[in-house]
Design a protein that fits this description.
The complex is a heterodimer. Chain A is α+β, with helices and mostly antiparallel strands. Chain A contains five helices and five strands; from the N terminus they run ββαβββαααα. Chain A is globular, with a radius of gyration of 15 Å. Chain A starts with a strand and ends with a helix. The relative contact order of chain A is 0.16. The mean pLDDT of chain A is 97. Chain B is mainly α. Chain B has two domains: 1-40; 42-196, no CATH class. Helices cover 41% and strands 4% of the residues of chain B. Chain B contains seven helices and four strands; from the N terminus they run H-H-H-E-E-E-E-H-H-H-H. In chain B, helix 2 (44-55) packs across helix 7 and helix 5 (149-158) runs antiparallel to helix 7 (184-196). The N and C termini of chain B lie far apart (71 Å). The chains are: A alpha+beta, B mainly alpha. Chains A and B meet through strand 4, helix 3 and helix 4 of A and strand 4 of B.
């Protein structure tokens, strides 16, 4: 079936089985490899993207539901020339170890900061439930607070 | 001997005709005792039993929890990832039900889905209640979202999220989820029969 949506600000139309996970449309059809496959069961969060601004596990999101929606992946998180505050904070705090899960964490964090501009540690623990096998959680927490500072200073 | 044979044959014929007549009368009588639908009206308390066998099943109670933590699975464990109710019963600001649950089951990932996937409001908590207490709460406008009996029946028999219980899909390992112990059409019929009888709740 034909599925039309905007991805990272660009209109796209793909021809795919409507039940194909959006993740595979993003990676294999549109060749955007930043969004990762982790568990395939909506558990680890490595595949997190934004659909109309909401964090969504794309491995468990049928492509047909993307019709008419605005999709943002890690490749489209930054707008303009500058980095997104989350990207900047991630670099400052040297968060990644192997790095595989980080795009999912960063997308989840960007969605959190839109809803909760100054998250507490508890907000972070409750809302960011992705899984990192390298256990970079401590650095991520610092980066999330730093990202909130940068974002709030910019607005 | 010939006379006896004739008598015996006549007796059998007469008895056979009488039996056939009686049988046809019995069938007509049964048919007349039934309602137009051809089925006997369901006893209200039998209907209550059937309805509550469904409503106390884990497919319903897992999302009618006592407190802010949904339950999941056949053993009704707390929902993975520390998922919480949130202000609108759809989860936390950046961990919404819709983060993982969509409009229909996803049988690739094993994530269940249906329209309006959410927790029942806290006032509609059923976990830990007896079936009588659940029934009373369903009829209490202060706890049932201000629904009339008619609206409650409509919710119980037509809402897609409720009826999802009979199409629960598969879990993360591909194993079909357990369905409620009463078939959907029997459950719907029981809810309506119970309501039409005045929604009686037994003393237990």
């Amino acid at each position: 079936m034909k599925i039309s949506f905007n991805i990272n600000g660009t209109p796209q139309e793909v021809d795919a089985d409507g039940n194909t996970p959006l993740l595979w449309v993003i990676r294999d059809v549109l060749d955007l490899k930043g969004t990762k496959f982790g568990c395939g069961k909506a558990a680890c969060g490595a595949c997190t993207v934004h659909v109309n601004g909401e964090a969504v596990r794309s491995c468990s999101y049928a492509a047909k539901f993307a019709e008419g929606k605005n999709i943002t992946t890690i490749e489209g998180l930054a707008t303009g020339d500058g980095l997104h505050p989350v990207q900047q904070a991630w670099m400052e705090e040297i968060v990644p170890q192997c790095g595989y899960c980080q795009p999912g964490f960063m997308m989840a964090t960007a969605a959190l900061l839109e809803k909760v501009p100054n998250p507490t540690d508890q907000d972070i623990d409750d809302n960011i439930v992705n899984i990192c096998r390298c256990a970079t959680y401590y650095r991520m927490r610092k980066a999330i607070h730093r990202a909130a500072e940068i974002k709030n200073a910019n607005t | 001997m010939k006379k006896n044979y004739l008598f015996y044959t006549l007796f059998l014929l007469t008895a056979g005709m009488a039996l056939a007549y009686a049988s046809s009368e019995l069938q007509e009588g049964d048919a007349m005792a039934q309602p137009p639908g051809g089925e006997e009206p369901e006893d209200a308390l039998q209907a209550f039993d059937k309805m509550m066998a469904v409503l106390t099943h884990k497919r319903c109670v897992n999302c009618h929890p006592a407190g802010d933590r949904p339950r999941q699975g056949e053993d009704s464990h707390y929902h993975n990832f520390g998922v919480r109710r949130g202000e609108d019963n759809h989860g936390l600001p950046a961990l919404r039900c819709e983060t993982c649950h969509q409009q229909e089951n996803n049988n690739f990932s094993g994530v269940p889905g249906a329209p309006e996937w959410s927790l029942a409001p806290l006032s509609m908590q059923w976990e830990g209640l007896s079936r009588v207490e659940i029934a009373r709460s369903m009829l209490d406008p202060a706890r049932n979202g201000g629904r009339t009996l008619e609206e409650t029946v409509r919710h119980l028999t037509e809402h897609e999220l409720v009826l999802w219980a009979w199409e629960p899909g598969v879990d993360a390992s591909g194993t079909p989820r357990e369905k409620p112990p009463v078939p959907k059409d029997e459950y719907i019929k029981a809810v309506k029969a119970w309501a039409e009888a005045g929604a009686p709740i037994p003393e237990e």
